[in-house]
Amino acid sequence: MGAVLSCIEGIFQAIGACLMGIVHAIGAIIMAIVDGIIAVFDIIVGCLTCQGCRGAGMRRRRHGTVSRV
After folding, report:
1. Tens digit of pLDDT for each residue in 25-35?
2. What is residue 53's predicted lDDT score, i.e. its pLDDT?
3. Can you state the angle between helices 53-65 and 2-48, rounded to 10 degrees?
4. Do residues 57 and 51 make contact, with C-beta atoms less than 8 angstroms apart?
5. Ranges of residues in the chain whose predicted pLDDT is under 70
6. Strand, coil or helix: what is 41?
7. Nearest to residue 40, comparing CAs of 52, 54, 28, 29?
8. Domain total of the chain
9. What's the predicted TM-score (pTM) here?
10. 56 C-beta neighbours (distance < 10 Å), count
11. Which residues contact 46 (CB under 8 A, 6 or more apart)?
12. What distance lies between CA 8 and its chain's CA centroid?
């Protein structure tokens, strides 16, 4: 009788571990999507506030046009 209960317990543990693996995988996928969306918004906000692509080009041009005599 103990062997049967042990076998059933092992089956339930395996099913539980499988379900938890699926939940963790879904959570990781959702986190990757959210992190990607946050990165895109960070780039957009950086460009709009002259900290990203536009700001770097303006700084380079400004330093390049200044000439000292």
Report:
1. 999 999 999 99
2. 57
3. 40
4. no
5. 52-69
6. helix
7. 52
8. 1
9. 0.58
10. 13
11. 52, 53, 55
12. 39
Confidence (pLDDT) at 48: 87
Helices (H), the chain: 2-48, 53-65
| Burial annotation 3-23 (CB, 10 A radius, 16+ → b, else e) | eeeeeeeeeeeeeeeeeeeee
Q: Which helix (H) or strand (E) holds 50?
A: none
Q: Which residues contact 58 (CB under 8 A, 6 or more apart)?
A: 50
Rounded to whole angstroms, the Cα distance separating 45 from 32 reads: 20
- Copy the structure tokens of residue 30: 């959702």
Q: What is the mean pLDDT of the chain?
A: 82
| Amino acid, single-letter form, for residue 6 | S
pLDDT of residue 55: 47
Q: How far apart are CA 41 and CA 47, in angstroms?
A: 10
